[in-house]
Fold this sequence. Notes:
Layout: H1 2-9, H2 13-27, H3 40-52, H4 61-85, H5 89-92, H6 96-99, H7 103-127, H8 133-150, H9 176-193, H10 196-200, H11 204-231, E1 240-245, H12 259-270, E2 283-285, H13 300-308, E3 314-323, E4 332-340, E5 346-351, H14 365-370, E6 392-393, E7 399-404, E8 423-428, H15 437-453, E9 457-461, E10 466-469, E11 475-479, E12 485-490, H16 501-525
Parallel strand pairs: 1-2, 2-3, 7-8, 8-9
Antiparallel strand pairs: 1-12, 3-4, 4-5, 6-7, 9-10, 10-11
Helix pairs in contact: 1-3, 2-3, 2-4, 3-9, 4-7, 7-8, 8-9, 8-16, 9-11, 9-15, 9-16
Amino acid sequence: MERIAESIMLSWGARRILLAVLAGALAVLALPPFNFFAVLFVSFPVLVWLLDGASGPAEAGMLGRLRPAFATGWWFGLGYFVAGIWWLGNALLVEADGFAWALPLAVLGLPAVLALFYGAAAALARVLWSDGLGRIAALAAAFGLSEWARSFVLTGFPWNAIGYAAMPAPLMMQSVEIVGIFGLSALTVFVFSAPALVGTRRGAVAGILAALLLFSAHVGYGWFALSRLDASRPVPAQAVIRIVQPAIDQKAKWDVAERERIFARLLDLSALPPIEGQPRPSHIVWPETALPFLLTDNPGALSRIADMLQIGQTLISGAVRVEDGTGGAPERYYNSIYVFDDEGQIMGSADKAHLVPFGEYLPFEAWMRRLGLTPVAETLGGFSAGDRRGLLALSGGLNAVPLICYEAIFPDLSEIADGRGDLLLNVTNDAWYGRTPGPYQHLRQSQIRAVETRLPLVRAANSGISVVVDAGGRIVGSLALGESGVFDIELPPKAEQAWNITNRRFNFGLIIVIMVFTAFFARNGKRRPLD
Length: 531
C-alpha cells in the first residue's frame, strides 16, 4: 500500500486531476440507490494521498501554497457532484424546447459551484496538515464545516452531504439523532480516511483503532436505539393513512386537456375500498401540486372532493394557492398543502417557505428576466415563498410538520417553533427526474429527518417513491418508483426525542473542536513540518 500511496502523492498534471475526479465519482456508489458504502474506503484515502502531495512552493505565500490543495478538493468535488446529481438535467428535458440549452449548467455548472465547498474544505484542512493522524482529523473537521456551510450559503443546497453515505440502512441511521447530518459527515470522513494512514504508516495504529471504535459505536448505537423503539409501550393507532401515487407524466400535469382526467384519476384512486378486513383510511394524502388547476378557477372541485370523502375522512393535497395582489400588485402563487374535511371545506393550509432557485423562482428576478431567463416551473409565473412555518392541524387531533418537496433535505425545517407535532408530512413530485437516482436520494434524506425528530414520516410522491416511515427510519409501507396506486397503513407512533436540534448543534461543534485540536496538536507537536 505504501507504493500506491507514494504513486498517488507524486502524481501531477492530468493524472492527478483524473485521480481526484474518479475518487469523487466513485464515492457516489455509497449513496442510494447503490448503498455500497465500502467504496469510501477507497475514495477518501486517495483524496488524503493526493492532498499529501498538494503543497505549493513556500515562497508563494499562504494562498499560493494552498492553491494545489484547493484544486485537488475541487476536482474531487466535481467528480462527486457530477456523478451524484447529473439527473437534475432530466428536469430541463421535460420542456426541452425552452430549457434544453441550460442542460450543461445543470449537469456541469451546478456541480462546479458545489465543488467550491470541497475545494475550500481541502484548502482549510491543508492549513493544519501533518504527516500522521492529525491530517485525517483536519480533513474531517473541514468537510464537516463545508457541509454545514452548504446548508445555508446562497439559500443552501445540502443535497448528498457525505454523511448520508454512511447510512445505507436503518441500523446505521440512528447516530444522526445525536450528532446531526453535519456531525456525521465529519465522522464519516474521519473513519473512511483512516486506511490512508496504513499507506504512510505514521499514526496508523491509533487512527485505525479510533476509526474502528467510531464505526462500532455507530452500529452499536443503531442496535440500541432500534431496540429501545421496539421495546416501547405500543399505543393505539391514531390514524389510518392512504397514500395516493397517481404517477402522472410531468408533461401532462398542467396540460389543460388533461386536467379532468388527472383529477378523476386522483378521486378514483382515493375512493378505492380498503383491503377486506382492513379499516378504511381516515386520512388520504395526495402529492405535491396534485390538484391540476387553481381552486379559484374550478370551485366545483370542492363538491367533488366532498362526494368522494366518507364521513370523518380528511384529504391532504398539494396544490397551487393563489393570493390576489393588493394595491395593484400582481397575483402571488404559492406551492402549498391544503387540508379538506369531508364536506369539502378547507380546514387549513401551509405554503412552501424554502423555494428551489431557478426551479420555482429566479434570484435577482428582474435582472434575470431581462436576460430572457424563466423558472423551470414557469407555468403560473413562478412561486412566492411562504412567510411563516407552523404546524398543520389535521383531523383526529394530529398536527403535522409540513415539508414540501426538497424542504425535507434541510434539518432545521423539520423543527417547528410552536411544537414538535405528531408526524412529518412530505408531499413531493419527483416525476421531473424520471427513473434516475434522484428520487432514491431524496427519499433517503427524508428518512433521516424522521430519525432526527423521532417522528413518523408520511411521504406522498407523484411518481414515487411514496412511503410511510416509522420513528426509526424504517419503511413500513411504500409504492415503488413509477408505480401507480394506493396503500393504506396505520400511522406509526412518534417516539421520545432524546436529542433535539440544539443538542445536535452542540455535539457537531464539539466534534469540530476535537478534530481541530487533534490536528493542531499533531502539527505543532511533531518535529518537522510537512511543507
